[in-house]
């Protein structure tokens, strides 16, 4: 199933500049576990790509429990995005070579032929986002005012859901 291009563009707009995510999955005990990951790409269908080591609990766990969540944030811009989806394990040396970059090399010194260098592609179901249109100074002032007055801050913010 191919995602609606408009919805994929909306997702890319929200996470395009956000590189780092917390990747949440179910471990071998069915407990939620999270680890930081670096987003490599968002493909034309909205798939979000990550490099991962094949000898990790994340790699093992998603084989049995592929439902995951990825959360992105940019505190300076007050942007937060939570993406739920299904993780796919990808072992494709051509794709690995095409996505290879110097930052990945730091984690896999043997290069793209390293047998443990593999990919995870998350196929999103939905993304929920919170985004402020106010500057950081306006947000700080509004929160400080709210703390003094006991009233919720008056902020120009946006919250929504993108279905994929």
Secondary structure topology:
Layout: H1 5-15, E1 20-26, E2 32-42, E3 48-53, H2 57-64, E4 67-74, E5 79-90, H3 93-99, H4 102-107, E6 117-132, H5 136-149, E7 157-163
Antiparallel strand pairs: 1-2, 1-4, 2-3, 3-6, 4-5, 5-6, 6-7
Overview features:
164 residues, alpha+beta, Pnp Oxidase, Chain A, 6-stranded antiparallel β-barrel
What does this protein look like?
With 164 residues, the chain is an alpha+beta fold. It has a single domain (5-163), classed as Pnp Oxidase, Chain A. The protein is 28% helix and 41% strand. It is built from five helices and seven strands; from the N terminus they run αβββαββααβαβ. The radius of gyration is 18 Å and the shape is globular. It starts with a helix and ends with a strand.
Task: Please identify which CATH superfamily we are dealing with.
Answer: Electron Transport, Fmn-binding Protein, Chain A
Total number of beta strands: 7
Strand portion: 35-45%
> Which class in CATH terms?
Mainly Beta
Strand order of the largest sheet: 1-2-3-6-5-4
Radius of gyration computed on alpha carbons:
18 Å
Number of domains: 1
CATH topological fold name: Pnp Oxidase, Chain A
**What summary fits the major beta sheet?**
6 strands, antiparallel, barrel
Structural class: alpha+beta
User: Which shape, going by the Cα principal axes?
Assistant: globular
Counting DSSP H or I runs of 4 or more residues, the number of helices is: 5
Along the chain, the helix and strand elements come as HEEEHEEHHEHE
Q: Do you know the CATH architecture?
A: Roll
Give the N-to-C terminal Cα separation: 10 Å
